[in-house]
Specification:
Elements lengths: L1 H16 L5 H25 L2 H4 L13 H14 L14 H15 L18 H29 L6 H34 L7 H34 L2
Helix pairs in contact: 1-2, 1-8, 2-4, 2-8, 4-6, 6-7, 7-8
Keywords: Membrane, Transmembrane, Transmembrane helix
């Protein structure tokens, strides 16, 4: 978990320094890796028991779960259609992610706003409802990404996939595998808490399994990001 955290943060910074390719998808993917890396740091602190030793740390504004599927979709969309300009209507995708960031900043700066347990069921930014939004967001935005990719392929009218589309398809496939594993674990946690008032997150085996599933996603994002950094110029020339 520590290794993937450092890799995500390091590669994410490199994307802001990347000279090849369009700056906008570079910045979007760099932001995706940074937010995923900080979210992994949150899970790492939780898994290693730091939240029990330092209760205030659970409120650090480093948890960006709702940003991840939106940033992934935005990266794919801008990569495939570099001429696209963001519109005011795109802000609807950012409502919950921005709300989550503002929520953590507020509870970090004003301790009186904090919930004693940290997470609570109906919290849309840090609780069971947030997990539901997170799980719904991944398949929804991956589906949007696939539809844009297919539309782009039809426009190019080529039998074989261009290198850029081939890489993006691999990226999305890896995210789908993560979604399946993480969804099973999250649903188990939801039903255990809802019907048996059991907090699976307090169990070492569950925390380990969930941490491993997110670590796998982060590792896949880092592998893709590293490949594009190395082969960025070839991707640009083969579009």
């Amino acid at each position: 978990m520590a290794a993937t955290t450092l890799a995500a943060l390091g590669i994410g910074v490199l994307y802001f320094l990347k000279r090849s390719g369009d700056k906008r998808p570079n910045y979007l993917y760099g932001t995706l890796l940074l937010t995923a890396g900080f979210t992994q740091l949150h899970f790492l602190l939780e898994f290693t028991g730091q939240f029990q030793r330092h209760p205030d740390w659970k409120f650090l504004p480093i948890y960006f779960s709702l940003w991840l599927p939106v940033l992934l979709f935005s990266y794919v969309k801008i990569s495939l259609y570099p001429a696209y300009q963001f519109r005011w209507t795109d802000l609807k995708h950012l409502a919950f992610p921005i709300g989550q960031t503002l929520y953590f900043i507020c509870i970090w700066l004003v301790p009186a706003y904090r919930h004693e347990a940290g997470r609570y069921f109906y919290n849309p930014f840090y609780g069971a409802f947030e997990q539901a939004l997170f799980l719904a967001g991944w398949p929804l935005y991956v589906l949007f990404s696939v539809l844009y990719m297919r539309q782009r392929r039809r426009y190019l009218n080529r039998r074989s996939l261009p290198r850029q589309l081939w890489y993006i398809r691999k990226l999305l496939k890896g995210c789908v595998f993560f979604m399946v594993a993480y969804t099973i674990l999250s649903l188990a946690d939801f039903f255990a808490f809802k019907f048996y008032v059991a907090d699976l997150r307090s169990q070492v085996w569950y925390a380990g399994a969930q941490a491993l599933s997110f670590t796998t996603l982060l590792l896949w994002l880092c592998v893709y990001g590293g490949q594009v950094l190395v082969w960025g110029r070839k991707l640009l020339l083969s579009r």
